[in-house]
From TrEMBL, chain A:
Coiled coil: none annotated. Pfam families: OB_ChsH2_C (PF01796), zf-ChsH2 (PF12172). Keywords: DNA-binding. Residues 44-101 form the ChsH2 C-terminal OB-fold domain. GO terms for molecular function: DNA binding. Residues 8-41 form the ChsH2 rubredoxin-like zinc ribbon domain. It comes from the Bacteria. It comes from Pseudooceanicola pacificus. This is DNA-binding protein.
UniProtKB/TrEMBL annotation, chain B:
Residues 248-385 form the Thiolase C-terminal domain. NCBIfam families: PRK06158.1. It comes from Pseudooceanicola pacificus. This is Thiolase. It comes from the Bacteria. Pfam families: Thiolase_C_1 (PF22691). GO terms for molecular function: acetyl-CoA C-acyltransferase activity.
Amino acid sequence: MGPQAEYFDHLARGQFRIQRCDDCASAVFYPRTHCPECGGGLSWVEPAGTGVVYSATIIRQAPERGGDYGVALIDLAEGVRMMARIIDCAPEDVRIGMPVSYAGIGSNADTILYRPGDAT
Amino acid sequence: MTENLRGKVAIAGVGQAGLGKAEGFTELEILAQAAHAAVADAGLQMRDIDGLATASVLAPMWAMPVIEYLGIKPAFIDSTMLGGSSFVAHLMPAIHALTSGECNAVLVCYGSTQRTSSVSRKVIAGVRRDFDPQPYEYPYEPLNPLSTYAMAAARHMHEYGTTRENLADVVVAARAWARLNPEAQRRDPLTREEVLAAKMVSDPLSALDCCMVNDGAAAFVLVRADHARDLPNPAIHVLGNATRVFARQGSSLPSLTETAAVASGQEAFRMAGVSPSEIDVAEVYDAFSINTILFLEDLGFCPKGEGGRFVADGGIAPGGRLPVNTNGGGLSCIHPGMYGAFIMIEAVRQLRGTCGDRQVAGAELALVHGNGGTLSSQSTAILGTASAV
């Protein structure tokens, strides 16, 4: 199984994992075969679960097509950035720089959810 | 050592076709019309073309049907696909091929019928999901490319205090230039208030912060400078070109407010031996209003973070501090999927002095900046008249 399949396999089992370089200790996201910083090998680690909103947008959509929804980029405490969805917060209330914490995995087992606040 | 290539190659001919709606025509047909127009403008015959650079949004083996359709047998073929910047990025490989003698005349060409085609953009997006997967972004359903540019705009506002009014002033300036260009697709008067009142699509970008969806084809012909001197139109020399890519996806870019245009711009200016203050006219790829602000900063026309103030209150409109996107840009002139070849043509026309009401008086040095993907690829070119070489 390649790192992409392994990532989604983790999600299917309810586990959110990122990678860490065995050589230079860089955190790596999205999952790869080698460290993009130094070429080293990678191991799976459980992230601390905290982060900060780097940016966000609201996609405007007619209610009959599902209505407005938010998409965000989160800077994880480990130093990597990822796309994510923020729950327990209206998209209009998401602020850049806002601390967020890990809130689980989306129902299709292919998205990561965060909610506002420091506590995990 | 690319400065050795400074000015060695020139644009001898340009052509466009199918601008706006090319109802009933295929992409290849309008591409061929633009290609023949460019070759004729260069004072050449299609049989003189022995180099080709082209790219397609849809077809991965695009160079082959283009070669077949035009009936050419090129010795040099470049079909590098970096999104909209491709036709600016095609310059340097063509310069190497021409100066080494691998070929003598390179046709750079593009055509799209995305407006009138039976293949909808929705179908294309669906196919791309499978053929060009981005499994760490697609599941969140960003409305890309727009949403990545929207997040760049939001971040720029957060970091530098840029406002929606600044973004709107980019759109209004583009429209003011378009009103001087008979080829521009959007020529109605437009105010800042109208832009601010437009329907929001992906915050903070509204429908009027986004480029158009048009048909259109564009082509230009590159030859060695000594050859260009014998051709009918004034030679427009390529003084510098550089391309940089740091990542494909917005979530993987090191920054959404400082792009690889910093690197492509520095290298293109170094090769050309000129500085931003010497540029007479700048054509920067404005797929979205934020692009113009980002690229004016990244290319050194103003300090990082000052772009909003640089464009404010007519700063880049006709009569402003710097003529930017003088054809009306992707926002108001034309945007058929990939726009890079069209900004090359506008820069050439400005340097030839044939732009009529929108002509920048005495323009000798032009900057062209292409962008592709979601702020992913950046290619900068410096063009100049014979007197600028």
